[in-house]
Amino acid sequence: VGDGNADHQCWERPEDMDTARTVYQIDASSPGSEAAADAAAALASASIPFHKVDRNYSSLLLKNSKT
């Protein structure tokens, strides 16, 4: 999870960015249930189209969405 305010102040190509990137970790003292839920939903939904073409990858995505 990054700093949205700082990210939205920078209007240049990602390749040209040389500013410090502040990173925050989600834990018991700094909850981030919304970001964690978004990530879990993205992993779970990404597992669906891979189910027929790559079951191992699909299973990995689904497993990681639950942890």
TrEMBL record:
Record-listed E.C. numbers: 3.2.1.4
GO biological process: cellulose catabolic process
Hydrolase in keyword set: yes
All copies of domain Glycoside hydrolase family, residue ranges: 1-66
Keywords: Carbohydrate metabolism, Cellulose degradation, Glycosidase, Hydrolase, Polysaccharide degradation
PANTHER family, sorted: ENDO-1,4-BETA-GLUCANASE (PTHR22298)
Classification via Pfam families: Glyco_hydro_9
Secretion signal span: none
Protein name: cellulase
Gene3D superfamilies in UniProt: 1.50.10.10
MF terms in GO: cellulase activity
Family: Belongs to the glycosyl hydrolase 9 (cellulase E) family.
Catalytic activity of the protein: Endohydrolysis of (1->4)-beta-D-glucosidic linkages in cellulose, lichenin and cereal beta-D-glucans
